Amino acid sequence: MPGSVGGPRILLRRLREVMAEPESAQKRLDKIVVLIASNMVAEVCSVYLMNGTKELELSATEGLKPTAVHATRLRVGEGLVGDIAAHARPRNLAGAQSHPGFAYRPETGEEIYKSLMGVPILRSGKVVGVLVVQNRTKRHYTEEEVEALQTVAMVLAEVVAAADLIGAVPDEPDLSRQMPYHIAGTSFSESIALGHAVLHEPRVHVTKLIAEDTELELKRLEQAVYALRGSIDDMLETMYDAPGIGLAAVQVGVPKQVIVMDLAREGEEPEPRYFINPEILSTSDDLAVYEEGCLSVPDFYEEVERPARCRVRYLDYQGEIREEECDEMLATCLQHEMDHLDGVLILDRTAPEQRREALKALPAGG
Questions:
Q1: Which of 248, 349, 362 is nearest to 300 (CA)?
Q2: Is residue 184 part of a domain?
């Protein structure tokens, strides 16, 4: 949902007016979050600042419970706010509470807000805080809104760094003015790759469907089915140990058209699903956006747009032919795993810059 006419330009002018008023630092911050929430058409706007113990402290909010101000603190890397600070990158989530990194703080009253957009507050290349907006409805904020919030955060960094503002904020962050510096190093090797090779190529399509010796083929089929079920059981155990909700055979080096899946929530009875030789017959025209993770790329999450529904044909664990209409998480997870069978990783669906950052973060041998 776009902001008002004039957007960031009007907001920046109003921020300047607030900073010119002879008021305490806390009152200025309180006014700033109200202005941002109004301009961004957000029900919540919060500012988290790095305090003396290097924690992100809720320093001002419009929408969350006022009693949480200076009481709610998050470590860098903890929760979605901590993740934004740790990686110095914006997050744009339509379903923030379903994200595995979400850290619930009951004192804030944020459980009613589903969507979240947050950007780091940077000064001299260092993260000094996080600026967050939230809404009750599930929505994906536009690129223009993300850029607008980043612009506001850039100005807010200088506002926070002002001496009269810092002095009144409890556990003020260390914002000593420093000039940026650059260190040049010497490379000893252009690149080194360690680890196990994982198939990353299109699947093999079977074209010869008629057997010349039926008895021999039936015997081979029985042996293959027995071995296949053993592989499927091993895959399911590997997926649970990870832990994950879906796994394609090629991810564990098995060149078979097999997917295992279990979408049961934590505390519910397991509901393992098996898809052998799956084929997507059709997909819907309408799309859905879910934040996806991948066992092949640990700790990497990216919002991916896919068809909201699909129809799939497959063999089940007993070898019976099934056709099924899939929607919501099942449709998303199935299409994600089908990508693996076609040699496509989640990184192939991300922007080049994000892909490079994700590859850099992968551990050696991973």
A1: 362
A2: no
